[in-house]
Amino acid sequence: MALKPATNPEVEAASIELAIDGRTVTAKDGVSLYDVIASTGNNVPAMCYHYTFDPFGSCGVCLVMVEGKKAPVRSCTAKAAAGMVVRTEGDDLFQARKKAVEKHLSVHPLDCPVCDADGHCELQDMAFQHQVTTLTNAKQKLIPEDTRSLVLDFNMNRCIACGECINVCKDVLMIDALQFVKKGGFTQVVAKGDTALSCEFCGDCLAVCPVGAITNKYSKYLYKPWQLKKTTTTCNYCGDGCQMYIETNDNEVVRVTSPLSWKNKWGDRAETAAGHGGICVRGRFGFQYIDSKARLRQPLVRRDGKLVETPWLETLHPMVERLAAIKAQHGPQAIGGLITARCTNEELYLFQKLMRAAIGTNQFDSSARYGHLNFVHAVQHALGIGRMTNDWEDITKAKAILLVGTNLTETNPLTAVRVKEAIRVYKSQVIVVDSAQTKIAALASHPMMVTPGTEGLLIQGLVKSVLEQDLVDEEVTGKHPQAFAALKQAVARVPLDAIAAQTGVSVEQIHEAAAIFAEAPRAIILCGEGIVRRTGGYEHVLNLVDLAWITGKLGRPGCGVNTVTEEPNEQGAVDMGALPEFLPGQVRFDDATAREKFAKAWGAELPPPGSGASLMEILNRCRSGQIKALYVIGENPLATLPASLEVRAALENLELLICQDLFLTETAQLAHMVLPACTYAEKDGTFTNLEGKVLRIRQTMDPIGESLPDWHIMTAIASGLGYELPYESAQDIQNEIMKLLPGYYNLGQPRKISPKPESYLGNGYVAEVGSRYRSGLKPAHGGSGRRSFTLTMGQLLYHSGKLSTQASGLINISPSGGRLRMNERDLERMGLGESARVRVTSPKGSLELGVEADLTVLPGSCFFPEHFNEPPVKDLMPVEVDAATGVPYFKLAEVTIEKVDEGGEVARGLSGGAS
Ligand code: SF4
Ligand code: SF4
Ligand code: SF4
Ligand code: FES
Fold first, then answer.
1. In this structure, is the dihedral angle defined by the CA atoms of residues 593, 597, 600 and 605, taken in order, positive or negative?
2. Ligand 1, residues 165, 194, 202: which to mutate, most atoms within 8 A of Cβ?
3. Which in 460, 536, 786, 835 has the greatest CB count within 10 A?
């Protein structure tokens, strides 16, 4: 039953008029009567209705009288119709609703004193509102609590069978992990198959449950809702930037909730196209690192080879003296820095200001270098914009979505929910190009599984197909005939059947996908790690821009080229200029006017143009001895980068390594000084999410131990160096950014940006397009081509970088298994059982590890999660550095896999080839 407002942006539902309590109300024809009544500000009592999905109509509380009907009707499932006359008040309705509440309460345990939902329970509120004081024929269900799930407990004595948990999981999340069963004479919610819950553990079912039937295992019995301080903030795990509430008791994080838990029938009747208010498993259950015992609480200073706890004053003073001495002796070019994109905008801004203005160096980088910068540079170069063009609402309402190289449900689960809503509500065609059988591929209308490393080739195939099938938008290409001719000439060199052979996708499939994309009125491209973190990432994004251009999808409303970001503030890192190529506002560092503006604002001379260094060059300069001091904030290059880059040697060569972090990371263990920083829960600031929304993070609790916000530590260092950064709060830094980048703080609304391809198409395009298509017919394998498996490293849903490995809630769900994930067919073929061990060999080395079956891994591929270094699979990865963007590629390798027998010998004749 579709009672949501008109779901097709092209066809608006007709407007109708009806009378509610004597007032004439205008509404859309066919939507839920409950919603229409709620739009007048009148919230009819209700228990089983939720704005996120179609009404289930089970609780019988939302009763209203409709003229012409003898009995009250359930307003949630009734459709609004023209001329309806509705009454929402009256003793008859009160008594009917009261009866419904009594019915529920008569089989509900009155265990409110020990229920987590006590004080935030819709049944309690309904009982109170309807003065239910006596219950005749009450009986107990006496159903044992189901505690089999890792994170949720199910107490079916409290369940009112409203179906909200099942509906949110099935309809909104398209995961469908729950069901009703009749057991012991009662309808109960159980995991599908009545086993332990095995799902994505987002906790949205917990959020929508109107009573305490589903409880959070990590916080059960720890609180009453009214005892908790609820702080609205933004998640610190991925670039989706979900809004959430961190709930604390004193200085302890008890639980995390999201708007979905609170925005219900008493709240907004939200339109969900811009988000349904949920969060993912990382956001909800990954908070324990905030007050983890492993957090650094005191500065550490190396003495006699050991890191020793030292008071701040005794750490900062000598540290700044050493920095100053290095600068005095060797010049500012002897100092470099790295910063994580988990820092706030204000901190990223301050970091680059400290490096450029206080120290005088342009040798620093942020974690946006690991891939996002490929996207930014490509769209800046081609379109004059520096981030993705569309927002969540555009994704939801797209008619065609092309997802390339993005395991979206794992990396950006809430962006994935937008694609799911596009599929479910807006009937979007979704084309997935990937080398893994991802969950989003399973939901897509057109999944196209490609040979690993050939995602970029498939893009070329789509461009070629658009030309061959004459799906070109002649109006837009006609404006740039030379560019279009150059593209046609370049693409002519790329035979479609060769692309089909190398990618493993048939020419017909390529043609079909190209036609769907080209012909859709609103078509969105979304690429991810399989593009931006793999060889040729920069050029592949440019080829995606070509695809959008020739099909007329640049600048048209609801169309565009987009990406996703892994860390929460990668976009902010770029916007704030926390990298050598850009000043704040994404202006080129060597732009004379911008240099003058910032030099004046900061009262300092900027480092000379051309003196900058990005991540790879910084490590080279550490190794060569040019950089003698490195200031590392929240980054852990030793644990992230392959050993062949000799990161350890680079860091050990330093005279001064300062690490500012939450934990004593592998890199921090090598440091001369370690400074304890605060998490996002202990400070104020903003993140810029992947849509370009600037979102607030708010201080939830006091800093743990002696830890300090990153910005605070930076101001102290600058002041020690004789450069005053006179900020007393994150707000002070914001005020400065606001002056320099007017309009950047957009109050949570993404600023609309429009691509401007004219300059690119009219100038450099003709000269460069040929090389982009010529280079295409080489799979990006990073190896000799003789090895039989493709090993990829990537992200899991339950983790984010290495930070999540400090969250006990997530480690509980997804521990470091240390196993290589392979396709079942390959395991069987190679005779690899559960306890088997294999030797994996790449051009960079060899190591032994266990194996496990993974349904998402295609035959001939294997996968290892990038969050874990036990064993150090990353060291098998060859590294290439993008010549245009300096992005290091190290997520894919060709390997051989051999079975190791119990004595540790490689069994002869059992090495696996792709099947
Ligand atoms: S936790 Fe999320 S995925 Fe699991 S059952 Fe609940 S709603 Fe479904
Ligand atoms: S567990 Fe909660 S949400 Fe699910 S049917 Fe029962 S009362 Fe409704
Ligand atoms: S990890 Fe990403 S998707 Fe999950 S809650 Fe945080 S911001 Fe949202
Ligand atoms: S029947 Fe309408 S809210 Fe439950």
1. negative
2. 202
3. 460
Ligand 2 centroid, distance to 248 Cα (angstroms): 26
pLDDT over 70, % of the chain: 95
Ligand 1 midpoint to CA 776 (Å): 41
The first and second tokens of residue 861, run together, are 């591929």
Q: For ligand 4, what atom is nearest to the CA of residue 265? A: 3
- DSSP letter (8 states) at residue 108: S
Q: Does residue 153's CB lie within 6 angstroms of at least one atom of ligand 1?
A: no
- Tell me, yes or no, if the pTM score tops 0.85: yes
String of DSSP letters for 322-377: HHHHHHHHH-GGGEEEEE-TTS-HHHHHHHHHIIIIII---BEEEGGGGTHHHHHH
Beta carbon of 178 within 6 Å of any ligand 3 atom: no
Query: What's the 191 CA to ligand 2 centre distance in angstroms?
Result: 12
How far is Cα of residue 349 from the mean position of the Cα atoms in its chain? 22
Nearest CA to 251 out of 803, 815, 704, 873 is that of 704
Return the best residue to mutate from 258, 260, 280, 342 for the ligand 3 pocket (most ligand atoms within 8 A of CB).
280
The letter for the amino acid at 181 is V
**What is the DSSP annotation of 132-187?**
----TT-----PPPB--SSSEEE-TTS-----HHHHIIIIISS---EEEEEETTEE
Q: Is the CB of 463 under 6 A from ligand 3?
A: no
Q: How many residues does the chain have?
A: 915
Whether residue 371 contacts residue 533, with contact meaning beta carbons closer than 8 Å, is answered with yes
Q: Which residues line ligand 2 (CB under 6 A)?
A: 159-165, 189, 208-211, 213-214
For 833, the enclosing helix (H) or strand (E) is: none
* Gap from CA of 126 to ligand 4 centroid (Å): 12
Q: How far apart are the first and last CA of the chain?
A: 46
CA distance linking residue 378 with residue 383, whole number of Å: 8
Query: How confident is the model over 637-647, as a mean pLDDT?
Result: 97
Ligand with smallest separation from the Cα of 439: 1
Best residue among 59, 123, 208 to mutate for probing ligand 4, ranked by most atoms within 8 Å of CB: 59
- Checking if the pLDDT of 776 tops 60, the result is no
Q: Cα dist. 372→35, 376, 385, 755, 888 in Å?
A: 41, 6, 14, 18, 11
Residue 785 has pLDDT above 50, yes or no: no
Nearest ligand to the C-alpha atom of residue 58:
4
Which amino acid is residue 216, in one-letter code? N
- Alpha-carbon distance 404 to 528, whole Å? 7
Exposed (0-12), middle (13-18) or buried (19+): which is 126, by Cβ within 10 Å? buried
The per-residue pLDDT of the chain, averaged, comes to 94
**Local structure of residue 635 (DSSP, 8 states):** -
Give the whole-angstrom CA distance, residue 679 versus residue 685. 11
Alpha helices in 469-536 (DSSP H): 474-478, 481-492, 496-503, 507-519, 529-532
Nearest to 162 by CA among 56, 64, 34, 33: 56
Secondary structure of residue 572 in the 3-state scheme: helix
Rg (CA), the chain: 29
Token representation of residue 887: 């992005």
Task: Measure the CA angle with vertex 796, ends 794 and 802; round to 5°.
Answer: 80
| pLDDT tens, position by position, 207-264 | 999 999 999 999 999 988 889 999 999 999 999 999 999 999 999 999 999 999 886 5
Q: Ligand 1 center to residue 882 CA distance, Å?
A: 40
In 3D space, the residue among 895, 831, 903, 905 whose CA is nearest the CA of residue 864 turns out to be 895
